[in-house]
Design brief:
The complex is a heterodimer of chains A (149) and B (366). With 149 residues, chain A is α/β, with parallel strands linked by helices. Chain A contains three helices and eight strands; from the N terminus they run E-H-E-E-H-E-E-E-E-H-E. Chain A starts with a strand and ends in a 25-residue tail after the last strand. In chain B, the strands form three sheets. In chain B, strands 6, 7, 8 and 9 form a four-stranded antiparallel beta sheet that branches. A three-stranded antiparallel beta sheet of chain B has the order 1-2-3. The termini of chain B are far apart. The chains are: A alpha/beta (149), B alpha+beta (366). At the A-B interface, strand 4 and helix 3 of A face helix 1, strand 8 and strand 9 of B.
């Protein structure tokens, strides 16, 4: 029994009813939603409560040089389905900010702190937004492409 | 009577923190009222280092994440690389890495159980019994690939060398002996009154709590959720083998211990089935290039590592090194609930609970 990875179209269909205006574009097996703080939380709450995506596998981030991308990977344990949601942020590399999903899934707590630490993306509404792995007065964010190691 | 709260640092250098882990714990007398994990003492920047190495070189970095389970780390990474670059592995290579992964699961669970019991105060006897069995697995690994802990055994397409002829009789001897050894351990521990009193109904985690906090692996199954990626989303040839999925009911420290012990037995059965089905042939297809250069794209293949869901999120820009390599580390994410689990319990329960989560600092900090 393989778990089913929802295609971008299928995720779009899940969200089309209530959140049509928040969908940015659908990829092959992921969907981009707009970086609107209150809408994002509504979308994630909807996916968790109404669409049974109860497990947040991981939150991670990628530095695409002209923008940053935050990637959410969700699993529905009952339906054995997975979905990938992406949010673009920090166009022009200035102040990348997205809203924290800690209030929806507690599992994001340490992962969002790690992203803030290593990639420098700020999560608004996070209960304890400080560095996780590096020390407090460390300068820069090592996983950014302009950080020379 | 009221008493003054005392805040104490436990670790990073402490025999029961399984590495360099620090907890800032506030006590009211002996009772824990607050706990905060402080991590990062073993941070080596593996994700950044991966961006400067070729796809095959990164295999050596994965060994050093969860260093009690190198084979499964290799497996998670290699599966992701194979998906990214459309490589079909050879059959014998896949069977060999399944045998390696299940042996590794037995070794990792032995370490976890041994140190858990050690933290309980059963000073070294059960731990050394279990480490003795782990040593036999490390010897089997030495036969397979020449290394004991940092194996780097897997390659895109399979494994880098076949197991020698003398490996198979040794493996069979291990499979014959191991069930008896587990019985010995269980005779010592499972019904032991001290173990029961100290672990039952301590630090319980409910189903809902566990799922909401992204807990995976034996810890999630101990809370009664039937979620094993080898069964729910089979990778390699796990769809061709049959095994039971041990589960707990209340999600306390005792359930977490029992799930691991029973998973060792199931892993032995899986290895036996692998030995029956493995056939001669190449361990890696000839057409796989040494320098893998995947096309633009991204991949993520989660596997059931001994500690939970482990997956490598790889993004490729068409170059010889990953553009981004993120590790979904089960040890780190399983720590999310630590604070909730220990509050209200005594200082003596702190390490038992920490041991029952089974984290590896190499993987927490990366």
């Amino acid at each position: 029994m393989m778990s089913k990875a929802l295609s971008g179209k299928e995720i779009e269909n899940l969200l089309k009813g209530e959140f049509k205006s928040s969908i940015e574009s659908a990829g092959e097996d992921f969907i981009y939603i707009q970086n609107n703080e209150s809408e994002c939380i509504k979308i994630f709450t909807f996916l968790k409560d109404s669409k049974k995506f109860d497990l947040l596998n991981s939150v991670t981030s990628v530095d695409f040089i002209d923008h940053f991308c935050v990637v959410y990977r969700l699993t529905s344990i009952t339906q054995n389905e997975t979905a990938v949601i992406k949010i673009r942020c920090g166009e022009g590399r200035d102040n990348p900010t997205v809203s924290s999903v800690c209030s929806v899934w507690r599992g994001a707590e340490l992962q969002e702190r790690e992203i803030y630490d290593l990639m420098g993306i700020l999560f608004t509404g996070h209960p304890n937004m400080k560095r996780l792995l590096l020390w407090e007065n460390f300068e820069g964010h090592p996983l950014r492409k302009d950080f020379v190691s | 009577m009221t008493s003054e709260l005392v805040t104490m640092n436990i670790g990073p250098i402490h025999p029961s923190t399984h590495g360099v882990f620090r907890m800032r714990v506030t006590f009211d007398g002996e009772t824990i009222v607050d706990a905060e994990p402080v991590i990062g003492y073993l941070h080596r920047g593996s994700e950044k280092l991966a961006e400067e190495r070729t796809y095959v070189q990164v295999v050596t970095l994965t060994d050093r994440m969860d260093y009690t389970a190198s084979m499964t780390n290799n497996q998670a990474y290699i599966l992701s690389v194979e998906k990214l670059s459309n490589i079909t592995p050879s059959n014998r290579g896949v069977w060999l890495r399944m045998i390696a992964a299940e042996l590794q699961r037995i070794a990792a669970h032995s370490v976890a159980t041994g140190f858990l019991i050690n933290d309980l105060g059963a000073w070294h006897t059960p731990l050394l019994y279990l480490l003795r069995e782990r040593e036999k697995i490390l010897e089997l690994f030495e036969m397979m690939c020449g290394a004991r802990i940092t194996n780097s055994y897997l390659r895109p397409g399979g494994v880098f060398m076949d197991a020698p002829d003398e490996f198979w009789p040794s493996l069979n001897r291990f499979l014959d002996e191991m069930p008896g050894r587990i019985d010995d351990i269980e005779n010592l521990l499972t019904g032991n009154e001290i173990v029961l009193v100290r672990t039952q109904n301590v630090a319980t985690v409910t189903k809902e709590q566990a799922i909401n906090a992204s807990i995976t692996g034996p810890m999630l199954r101990a809370s009664g959720v039937d979620w094993d990626l080898r069964h729910r989303n089979p990778y390699d040839f796990y769809s061709q083998v049959s095994f039971r999925r041990p589960m707990g009911t209340v999600g306390d420290n005792n359930d977490r211990y029992l799930v691991r012990i029973n998973e060792i037995r199931e892993s032995l059965k899986i290895i036996e089935q692998c030995i029956d089905m493995i056939e001669p042939g190449p361990v890696i297809p000839k057409e796989v290039p040494f320098l893998v250069r995947p096309p633009n794209g991204e991949s993520y293949v989660p596997i059931e590592a001994p500690k939970g869901e482990l997956g490598f999120y790889l993004v490729s820009d068409g170059g010889i090194a990953p553009f981004r390599c993120h590790v979904r580390a089960p040890s780190l994410i399983n720590l999310t609930l630590l604070r909730d689990m220990v509050i209200g319990y005594k200082i003596a329960d702190l390490f038992v609970t920490f041991g029952s989560i089974d984290v590896n600092m190499g993987e927490v900090d990366r």
